[in-house]
Specification:
seven-stranded mixed sheet, TIR_dom, alpha/beta, globular, Rossmann fold, DUF676_lipase-like, endoplasmic reticulum
Length: 779
């Protein structure tokens, strides 16, 4: 019978991913994966050490030749038995990866087929949880498939009748066909390695046999025989490095799982204290606020500790308090309604909890959909778009929702699972005309997935500026570097999206990398950042089965792009980097920026332009280039004049007004311009609020600078950002005195990048009236 061995008991409580090793014929759960008799050569333990947030298991099962060589190959029975063992171990509740040697790959394929087709509900989750299957010398197709067991029988000194092998032929071929037809549908990433050396004079699995027949999957040759291929001698071996890199990538992006069980929770395991919850919601949304109050009451009645913003004392620095409470909480419960999905404060709280979860395994995020099945905004979806959630439809779901939140830290034996959120590539669905803080770059992903589909963020409410006309000139042809510079929420991502649309229309291949998705970039070392960057670049250009090295210097990254990336992609290319200034403050910022400058220079280098001349760069930044890198000759941001994004001019408000049916008169438009000074995000938001909040213009102006007003969510978000960045005193100095502390020019650049200040008549002033009013009163 099968049994499972936990290699990494230290990680089981904090793991985000499970990896199961499955040996082949004549193997076992330990010796198959050891290059010697020394325990230190057991390489599943290396993975457990190198990837502490991954739970590693090794499966053992009866695999002697006598058990498998005969008319009734017990593959189906073995798969059913293994499924039962995995279920008893509570596997399948997190993302799952199998590493299989030889016949073990056939066992896993049969396991997946049984889970998918047998009809037992509790087993189906294994098919959906499996993210990747790594095959080491497993036969999939070709003439050798029917002889596979016989070949191993010869090597293992076992005998078998020809009739018996032929009885297995049809089943093995049918299983291979099922997997090749269904792997992509099940979103299983198959990775394949095959031997290049004979074993006892026999090549058991050659390249043809190793090929699973799945589009885009290329078998990788390994300088080993059928048995040594699964026994890497050290951490530098190709098999180990490749598999570690793959698993590390999945562990980085694995979603936190929201599981449920059946009782009021006890203390948090290992702490002896009650569970702690932080409830995030949109206070202005009446239904959200009412549900939040009920959840707080229910969680506290169950003995849990709960924080909600209404508990904050008057006069407390709410930004610091929210920071402290997110670090304090075990879970952040976020209520997602049509209103809150676009709330900047909700986004900020989720962003903080996301970073806390990555760094400390704390403040896991538990989404609750509040009578809302629409999409999420770009940033919010990047954090929680793959998490499971609780669906609340009406007050009748109140108790059920509390119960599910109480059980979030234990498994669900009933098999009931919350429904998955829309995938990260599904564009958001919002009311027409609703402004978004950041352009939805998933529109680009959709266009790349479906060549020929239109790519545009136009919705009838997009008002062009001079910068749009500058981008209009770049219609493909000559490769170049462009720099798009604009303060926070001035439309950089939207303009970048439009530029990439022009590039795609001209037949240029596009790679888009948003550094926001990297999390807290400055906390990474250069090797980790460059490794993630290289993986993202290869994914964007569709390059697979290439393992990046460890990058010690920017020259290593340049060499990798030159040798491994550019030769694999044909035609003109554009690499677009959004939020390219997020690396400011890292110890290696000059290394990265000088690499980009070098890529630009290589386009005209007499010996390099043949390779690099096809690559254009598009960089979006908020910060003045003088702040980004001290050595001007190594900066990629001064090789061309930047396309500067500023506020809307006064006449643009006439265009907005026309989009909304000329709802405001000329005097009101003049007042709105004075209030907002053409702020690219707040201006369209003002028109939207006038329509959908059913407020009058005078009412909006009166409360515009209050945290309960139509822009309150934005204003609190800006206050929060300044507190985190340590800039709140500098901003107060501006609004009260018109001066910066110590006349520090860098403080001006940082506040300018946030869109909060401008220079006027030799003084630094708030960029609009509502910022000046708000920061004079904010505590």
């Amino acid at each position: 019978m099968a049994e499972i061995h936990l290699v990494s008991p230290h990680s089981i409580g904090s793991a985000v991913l499970d990896v199961v090793f499955v040996h082949g014929l004549g193997g076992d759960k330990l010796n198959t994966w050891q290059a010697s008799t020394a325990a230190e050569s057991f390489w599943p333990a290396w993975l457990a050490e190198d990837l502490p947030n991954v739970a590693v298991y090794s499966l053992g099962y009866e695999a002697s030749p006598s058990a498998w060589l005969g008319k009734a190959m017990p593959l189906g029975d073995r798969a059913t038995n293994v499924l039962a063992v995995l279920e008893a171990e509570k596997l399948g509740e997190r993302p799952l990866i199998f590493v299989c040697h030889s016949l073990g790959g056939l066992v896993v394929k049969q396991l997946l087929r049984t889970a998918e087709t047998l009809g037992q509900e509790s087993w189906r989750r294994f098919a959906s949880a499996t993210k990747s299957v790594i095959f080491l010398a497993t036969p999939h197709a070709g003439a050798r498939l029917a002889n596979f067991v016989g070949l191993l029988g010869r090597i293992l000194r076992a005998t078998v009748a020809v009739e018996d092998l032929q009885a297995n032929d049809a089943h093995l071929r049918e299983l291979s066909q099922w997997f090749s037809n269904n792997a992509q549908r099940l979103k299983i990433d198959a990775r394949v390695f095959f031997e290049t050396q004979d074993t006892a004079g026999v090549r058991v699995v050659d390249e043809t046999s190793a090929n699973p027949g799945i589009s885009g999957v290329v078998p990788i040759p390994v300088d080993a025989d059928h048995y040594s291929i699964c026994k890497p001698r050290d951490r530098n071996a190709l098999v180990y490095k490749s598999i570690r890199q793959l698993i590390s990538g999945y562990a980085t992006t694995a979603p936190t799982q929201l599981a449920t069980a059946q009782s009021t929770p006890g203390p948090l395991p290992g702490t002896g204290r009650p569970l702690r919850y932080f409830v995030s919601y949109r206070r202005r949304a009446e239904v959200d606020a009412k549900l939040a109050a009920f959840l707080v009451e229910g969680l506290r009645a169950a003995g849990c500790e709960v924080f909600i913003d209404v508990d904050m004392p008057v006069g407390v620095n709410w930004s610091m308090e929210i920071d402290r409470r997110i670090a304090w909480a075990d879970y952040l419960v976020v209520l997602l309604s049509e209103d809150s999905a676009s709330s900047e404060m909700v986004q900020a709280e989720v962003r903080r909890a996301h970073l806390a979860s990555k760094g400390q395994q704390r403040s896991r995020i538990l989404p609750v959909r509040v009578a809302y099945s629409g999409g999420l905004g770009y940033e919010l979806d990047s954090y929680i778009g793959k998490l499971q959630y609780v669906l609340w439809q009406c007050e009748g779901d109140n108790e059920r929702t509390v119960a599910k939140l109480l059980r979030a830290h234990v498994a669900d034996p009933s098999g009931e699972r919350p429904q998955p959120l829309p995938g990260p590539d599904e564009p958001t669905s919002k009311p027409v005309g609703r402004p978004e803080p950041k352009a939805d770059m998933r529109l680009l992903r959709e266009a790349l997935d479906m060549p020929g589909s239109p790519l545009s963020d136009d919705n009838g409410f997009y008002i062009q500026r001079q910068s749009d006309r500058l981008v209009e000139r770049f219609r493909g042809g000559k490769t170049r570097t462009i720099v798009i510079k604009g303060a926070h929420q001035t439309g950089k991502s939207s303009l970048l999206l439009r530029y990439l649309a022009k590039s795609l229309a001209a037949g240029t291949k596009v790679a888009f990398i948003d550094l926001m998705a990297f999390g807290s970039v400055r906390r990474l070392g250069f090797a980790d950042f460059a490794g993630q960057f290289a993986l993202a670049l290869m994914k964007e250009f569709g390059i697979r089965n290439v393992v990046p090295p460890v990058f010690g210097h920017s020259l290593d990254l340049t060499a990798f792009v030159e040798d491994e990336v550019l030769p694999r992609v044909e035609g003109p290319l554009v690499l677009a980097i959004d939020d390219a200034d997020r690396v400011i403050g890292s110890a290696w910022q000059e290394d990265f920026y000088s690499a980009l400058r070098g890529w630009d220079a290589n386009r005209s280098h007499p010996f390099k332009k043949k390779t690099w001349g096809r690559l254009g760069l598009a960089l979006a930044i908020a910060t003045d280039p003088k702040m980004l890198i001290e050595s001007g000759y190594t900066s990629p941001f001064n090789v061309t004049p930047p396309i500067n994004l500023g506020p809307f001019p006064r006449d643009a408000l006439d265009d907005f007004n026309a989009c909304y049916g000329n709802m405001l008169g000329a005097a009101q438009l003049d007042r709105l311009y004075v209030l907002l000074r053409g702020h690219p995000f707040l201006t369209p938001l003002a028109f939207y609020r006038l329509v959908f909040d059913e407020t009058t213009f005078d009412q909006m102006v009166t409360v515009a600078a209050r945290d309960v007003g139509p822009f309150g969510d934005h204003l609190k978000s800006m206050f929060d950002r300044l507190c985190i960045a340590g800039l709140i005193d500098a901003m107060r100095g501006v609004v009260f005195t018109g001066k910066l502390p110590g006349k520090d020019r860098r403080l001006f650049y940082r506040l300018e990048a946030a869109g909060l200040v401008i220079e006027q008549d030799g003084h630094v002033v708030a960029s609009n009236e509502i910022y000046e009013r708000f920061f004079k009163e904010a505590q």
